[in-house]
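Figure 3 (text version): structure tokens given as input.
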């Protein structure tokens, strides 16, 4: 992916970055010159991500991490900072896909979508405070902004993450740490949620596509473009915001 952004000298940590949106964000930063660390649970995907990041010539660090485990997050953040020489940008991208309205669904979303972001931010804070261009990015969702018949836990937790973004931005403003979120619409990539639904639930896939004014699903790299902007000096006066990247999908309610 060609980019006009310059992140040489930046150290970027992507929590949940071995596939889909997270992988695209990690690769976009690497292509722009950043040293990048990625964590996820799957070892094979991490190897592929590390090789892809390293192919851009920058420092690449990957580590297996269960983002529902506070001690695992603490160890990962400190290891990533040691490998990169610090942290300038923290991207909290993981999701537990808590769509079912039962305890497991709620717990998956709460622990991975929300608390992993809270915890990673907490452990990264000393490193971010030492950075001259620190920022935190959270991956929310357009599901946070509208009621829905299905997937209430996912929507509620993403809404909490968007609200946390505003409070965290206010709390960290005096430390000159910017905090923003991206709310993607429906993003399709190989073996991702919408790719599987296209094959397994074509009626749901078509109904969702019909609600996107641009007439197509989004691509992971389009979220990565927004992440580069929000972490860059071009967004130096932007904090506490959630940016929708959805091809107008949210306009349809």
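Below: residues designed for each position.
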């Amino acid at each position: 992916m060609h980019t006009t952004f310059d992140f040489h000298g930046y150290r970027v940590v992507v929590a949940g970055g071995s596939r889909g949106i997270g992988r695209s964000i990690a690769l976009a930063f690497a292509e722009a010159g950043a040293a990048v660390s990625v964590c996820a649970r799957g070892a094979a995907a991490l190897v592929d991500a590390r090789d892809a990041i390293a192919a851009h010539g920058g420092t690449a660090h990957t580590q297996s991490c269960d983002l529902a485990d506070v001690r695992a997050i603490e160890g990962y953040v400190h290891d990533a900072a040691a490998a990169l020489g610090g942290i300038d940008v923290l991207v909290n991208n993981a999701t537990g896909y808590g769509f079912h309205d039962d305890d497991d669904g709620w717990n998956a979303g709460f622990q991975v979508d929300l608390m992993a972001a809270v915890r990673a931010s907490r452990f990264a804070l000393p490193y971010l405070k030492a950075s001259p261009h620190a920022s935190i990015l959270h991956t929310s969702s357009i599901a946070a902004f509208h009621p829905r018949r299905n997937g209430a836990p996912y929507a509620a937790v993403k809404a909490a993450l968007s609200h946390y973004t505003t409070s965290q931005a206010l709390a960290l403003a005096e430390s000159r740490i910017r905090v923003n979120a991206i709310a993607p619409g429906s993003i399709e990539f190989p073996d991702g949620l919408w790719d599987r639904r296209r094959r397994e639930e074509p009626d749901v896939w078509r109904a969702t596509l019909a609600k996107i004014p641009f007439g197509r699903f989004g691509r992971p790299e389009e979220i990565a473009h927004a992440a580069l902007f929000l972490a860059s000096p071009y967004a130096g006066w932007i904090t506490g915001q959630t940016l929708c990247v959805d091809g107008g999908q949210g306009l349809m309610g």
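The radius of gyration is 17 Å.
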